[in-house]
# Entry
Amino acid sequence: MTNCSNNYGPRHFPEKLIPLMILNALEGKPLPVYGDGLNERDWIHVEDHAKGLVAVLERGRIGETYLLGGRAVRNNLAVVEALCAAFDRLRPEGAPHARLISFVTDRPGHDRRYAIDPGKAEAELGWRPTKVFEAALEETIRWYLANEAWWRPIREGRYTGERLGLAKAG
# Structure
């Protein structure tokens, strides 16, 4: 069994923080941050998560639970600011993207911190996350920049629930 921290990376459906902020920034829309933005999350890149799952399948002990985390705890405001800094490098627009940040009322019961310790998985399985958050965030932004045909139908409400990114069976 595994538990993981918050995933990010290519093809992340745009309802969660990172893909939502990327697409809003691409469209020049506000970047809404809940409350004071200091809610903390541990982030794991989807490739690190997948490699962790393989390590558990290959070397994990039956009946054990392994926590797969990225060792990249950031508060939400810091994530959005890092995203804005990456956009300023990748798509400079004259004004900093941070101008799009807005603070909105926090949702009731919003957890202040989600973070896990992957030490057991690291020690017992020899698995470790390898992605550096800021570099992998920029890599993720580059993917969204290059794949508008994937995300545009979702943003325009034309997505009808079909699987995305998979070849059709022949």
Observations:
- The chain has a mean pLDDT of 94.
- Helices lie at 17-26, 46-59, 76-90, 119-125, 133-146, 148-155.
- The two ends are 34 Å apart (CA to CA).
